[in-house]
Amino acid sequence: MLAKPGLAFIYTITFLIKTRMAEGKRRPLSVHFEIRDRPYDLMACMVLALLLILMVFVAPDNALRQVLGLIFVLFLPGYAATAALFPENDQIDGIERAALSFGLSIAIVPLIGLALNFTPWG
To answer: Which residues contact 116 (CB under 8 A, 6 or more apart)?
Structure first.
């Protein structure tokens, strides 16, 4: 009889805990999460989003608003998802990050539109 995949994971964790406790280590498992001190790229995304909101109310028929809107729709959702998936700068380089940002935006924005279709605001 084959074990379920979840049980194999639990057995592996249990084995690691028993092994490390037998070696005399004080903490059985340690997980290291590295968080950037100041994510300037995501702060820039927030500033662009706030600038776009300001442009909607101040100048509704402006070419700058259309350019910011295209950046907001075609780049920023994917960039935020890429920053969440690859938080460190050394994991992927800039060209890969830009390509993933455009690709993920093209995948994410229609899903957001579909979800908004089923809300009272859509």
So the answer is: 122
What is each CA distance from 106 to 38, 84, 99, in whole angstroms?
Answer: 27, 17, 11
**How far apart are the C-alpha atoms of 117 and 11, rounded to whole Å?**
44
pLDDT, tens only, 34-43:
555 677 888 8
Q: Compute the average pLDDT of residues 107-115.
A: 94
Q: Within a 13 Å sphere around the CA of 107, how many CA atoms are in the beta-carbon half?
A: 11
The domain spans of the chain are 40-117
Task: Give the pTM.
Answer: 0.63
Q: Summarize the confidence of residues 24-39 as an average pLDDT.
A: 57
CA angle in degrees (0–180, nearest 5) for 67-69-73: 120
Distance CA 20, CA 74 (A): 48
pLDDT for 62 beyond 80:
yes
Q: Please, where are the H alpha helices in the chain?
A: 5-22, 40-58, 63-74, 76-85, 94-117
